[in-house]
Amino acid sequence: MDAESDETTPAETVSLGKKDDDAVTSEVEAAETAEDADADDETADDPEAAADGADGAADAGDDAGDAAGDDEDDVQAAETSKAAKGKNAKVVTPLSKAEKRAAARIAAAKAARRRRTGQAIAGTLILLLAVGGAFAGIWYFGDRAEKNKVKCKPVGDANAFPPLLGGMNKALATEPTITASSDQIKTVRTTILIKGDCKTVKAGQTVTVNYVGATMKDGKTFDASWPRKKTIEIPVGQKQLGKQLQVIEGWDEGLVGLKVGTRVQLDIPGNKAYGDDAPEGYPAGTLRFVVDILDAKDADSSGLPAGLGG
What's the pTM? Predict the structure, then answer.
């Protein structure tokens, strides 16, 4: 009987194991309860620790709230952006065949208008060029050719005064005036007043001229062809050819090399005019002449200018 009482059956063993586990669990729970009680006692004994605990819990709550608020703001911003994009986005609707044909007709009409405008502008330019070319042709082959035909040739009445050749400056038909000057002249000085464009006067030729002569210091006229309405014809360049002078030296050298149709002012010192101590009836000292060269002719075999003398 005692021996049997010492033995334990399997069922009893399981029951005992379970009881042992329950006992252990009860002991652990009792220990945790005791620790919590100790912690509460410590918190009660230390107010600052309690306050810190409360602040920590509050901060944790605030952080959680802030995080949740930020998430809500992000979601709301995303939804607002999507809504804005959806509102501003243009919906492209494909064109129908009829709409495409209409657009093609409009484009073709615009292109045709541009072509017509370009053709009209081109036609106007061509017309203007044609008209301009016609006028240029008339001027070049008509009026200009007619002027060239008579340029530097006798025209009109041969007895007219002064006898201007074709194309000469009309100012040569007006008598010039002479002004005084105190310049000291040592050599012949030429000043072109009107430039001619006919042939150049050569040494040995006879020139037809109009002239006015005055003493340079006071500008007083002592001789002129204008009041007589008659030009004079004189040979020039004789000194260059080693021949006897036919006029004062200032004229002989001053007119050579100038073109017919020129009006020239000749300032001539006394030694190339009539001298500083001139003969009676002739001006002394420096003289000033204004000479119009109206023609120039070569001398014939007899030494007389062609057309002058028989």
Answer: 0.54
Question: In the 3-class helix/strand/coil scheme, how is the chain assigned residue by residue?
Answer: CHHHHHCCCHHHHHHHHHHHHHHHHHHHHHHHHHHHHHHHHHHHHCHHHHHHHHHHHHHHHHHHHHHHHHHHHHHHHHHHHHHHHHHHCCCCCCCCHHHHHHHHHHHHHHHHHHHHHHHHHHHHHHHHHHHHHHHHHHHHHHHHHHHHHHCCCECCCCCCCCCCECCCCHHHHCCCCCCCCCCCCCCCEEEEEECCCCCECCCCCEEEEEEEEEECCCCCEEEECCCCCCCEEEECCCCCCCCCCCCCHHHHHHCCCCECCCEEEEEECHHHCCCCCCCCCCCCCCEEEEEEEEEEECECCCCCECCCCC
Q: Tell me which CATH code domain 170-297 carries.
A: 3.10.50.40
Domain layout of the chain by residue ranges: 102-150, 170-297
> In this predicted model, what pLDDT tens digit does every residue of 170-187 receive, in sequence order?
999 999 999 999 999 999
